[in-house]
Amino acid sequence: MLQQILTDMFISPELLAELSEEQKQVLFIKMREEQVRRWKDREARLEKEDATLTKPKKASVKSVQWLAGMDSDVWVWVMGDHPADQSYEQICDDIIAQRAACQAQREAEELRAKKEAELVKRFSSVLMDSELQLWKEEVERQEVERQEVERQEVERRAAAQEQSQQEKREAEERRRAEEEVRRVEQKRKQEIYMDLREVREERDDQHWQDSLRKSKAADLRRRSIAKQTRDDHRRQSVKALERGRVAAVTKAFGGDRPALPPKPKPRNLTVTSDTLNPKQGVRRTLSTSSREHIIRWFQEEQLPYRAGFQKDQSRIASWFHGIISRQEAEDLLSEGEPGHFLVRVSERILGYVLSYRCKEEFKHFLVDATEGCYMLLGHQIRFTSLAELVEFHEGEPITMSGGEQLLQPCGQRPSGVDYADLFT
User: pLDDT-derived band of residue 259, with 50, 70 and 90 as boundaries?
Assistant: First the structure.
């Protein structure tokens, strides 16, 4: 099953749901190694094809002509290489400077309007007083004799000169006020620019630090999982070789064991477009099977191997259960203590699931039953029967990280057995 998944580079959601977290990590590492291997093979094949002479292409009506440069090669423009191109920092600085200028200009307009109101209010009162004085002088001039004409003319000239001086003072104050507004605007623009730049630099630095920390944590976690998987495989392989329960990695099993029953007859499966890989034509393991299909598979292919029986094949093992769901298995295990386990026929795929109760949760490990042997998905140790697999893990944990050691089998309910339909 693992080899089939690596060949197709596909795993159905139903099959993925049956895997434990450790099996998912192992499957991810295996699929990644297969992707790297295929990539290297493809690169080598492409290099070999490029070395050979390319066949002349047939003339086509449509054609594409590339713009050539001074070196008669295809002209390529990479954004950022030209001296006139701006860098990311320069573009950000221009945007920040533009925003700061707009905000400073708005504040300068408000300050200019305020100064203008103050100046108008001050000088309007002065002008009103001057006109009133001139009107009074005019009335007095009409009331006095003609001898006062020269004095009135001097007073008018003095008033005109005073008004001119007032206008000059007003223009000077306006100029000073405008210079003050421009100075405040420039200062405010620089302050806003520095504040925005500091905020952007702090945000970019924090983002880089977070990304680096997450990347290091993910790398350490992947290395730890890979090391733990290698240690588990090495330890279990050595233990299995010492006990004499491991067969060769090939399809044929070695050792002096009793001869297996004759190979079951092949199933009559209906091959559809969903069960074939359109590129390679390889048949996938059926992942959505009906209950009748699973029962027929068990009776035709597993029952001749005495699957579900004890090692001496005298009776059905106490840990064996029929086609029950994950929730039903957890309900059975919840009645026992941590370390209870059972082996059930999967209701979704053609295979088995080893359900185990931990202290705070339940774990489900998929058991691959293809090629006439049994092994946990992601492991390399193969067993000739389910009983040997269970007996091995009664002494050795399934994973070193979880320490799942099979301590007590979970039997049937008193109301009746759940595997009756498999043996009828």
Answer: very low
Average pLDDT over residues 397-420: 85
CA distance 301 to 266: 8
Q: Can you give the chain as a three-state secondary structure string?
A: CHHHHHHHCCCCHHHHHCCCHHHHHHHHHHHHHHHHHHHHHHHHHHHHHHHCCCCCCCCCCCCCCCCECCCCCECCCCCCCCCCCCCHHHHHHHHHHHHHHHHHHHHHHHHHHHHHHHHHHHHHHHHHHHHHHHHHHHHHHHHCCHHHHHHHHHHHHHHHHHHHHHHHHHHHHHHHHHHHHHHHHHHHHHHHHHHHHHHHHHHHHHHHHHHHHHHHHHHHHHHHHHHHHHHHHHHHHHHHHHHCCCCCCCCCCCCCCCCCCCCCCCCCCCCCCCCECCCCCCECCCCCCCHHHHHHHHHHHHHHHCCCECCCCCCECCCEEEECCHHHHHHHHCCCCCCEEEEEECCCCCCEEEEEECCCCEEEEEEECCCCCEEECCCCCCECCHHHHHHHHHHCCCCCCCCCCCCEECCCECCECCCHHHCC
> Tell me, what's the pLDDT at 57?
59
User: Using CA atoms in the order 183, 188, 191, 192, what is the torsion angle rounded to 10 degrees?
Assistant: -150
Cα distance between residue 247 and residue 253, in whole Å: 5
* Of 239-243, 299-303, 348-352, 407-411, minimum mean pLDDT range: 239-243
pLDDT digits (tens, 9 = 90+) for 284-332: 344 446 888 988 888 888 888 888 898 888 889 999 999 999 999 999 9
**Structure-token match 């000239």, residue found:** 157
Q: Are strands 408-409 and 375-376 parallel, antiparallel or unpaired?
A: unpaired
Q: Which residue has the higher pLDDT, 52 or 406?
A: 406
